[in-house]
C-alpha cells in the first residue's frame, strides 16, 4: 500500500487528509503519474467551493518518503508515503 497525504488545497479538494492506495490496482508501471491518475478517479469532484483535484495536482509538488518526486515518470514503491504539496500562501 502507498500512503498519499494531502496538504492545503489538495486536502480541501479531496475532503480528506490521506488515502491508502493498493498499487496492484494501477495499470502499467508504478509511477507518480499513474498514482495521480488513480487519485483523480477516486476524487472526480471537489467539495462545493473547492478546486478539483486534477487542477490542484497540476500545480503541486510531490515528496516520496521525504525526497523530491519531480516528474510523473518518477517511480513509487509499495509501503512508501507520497505527499501532495500545493503551492502555499506566498509560494
TrEMBL record:
Gene3D superfamilies in UniProt = 3.10.20.30
Highest taxon listed in the record's lineage: Bacteria
Spell out the protein name for this chain.
MoaD/ThiS family protein
Organism the protein comes from: Kocuria soli
The lineage is: Bacteria, Bacillati, Actinomycetota, Actinomycetes, Micrococcales
Amino acid at each position: 500500500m502507498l500512503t498519499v497525504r494531502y496538504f492545503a488545497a489538495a486536502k480541501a479538494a479531496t475532503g480528506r487528509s490521506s488515502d491508502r492506495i493498493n498499487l496492484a490496482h494501477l495499470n502499467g508501471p508504478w509511477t507518480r503519474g499513474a498514482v495521480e491518475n488513480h487519485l483523480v478517479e477516486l476524487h472526480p469532484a471537489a467539495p462545493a467551493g473547492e478546486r478539483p483535484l486534477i487542477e490542484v495536482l497540476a500545480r503541486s509538488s510531490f515528496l516520496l518518503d521525504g525526497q523530491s518526486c519531480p516528474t510523473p515518470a518518477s517511480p513509487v514503491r509499495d509501503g512508501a508515503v507520497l505527499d501532495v504539496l500545493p503551492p502555499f500562501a506566498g509560494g
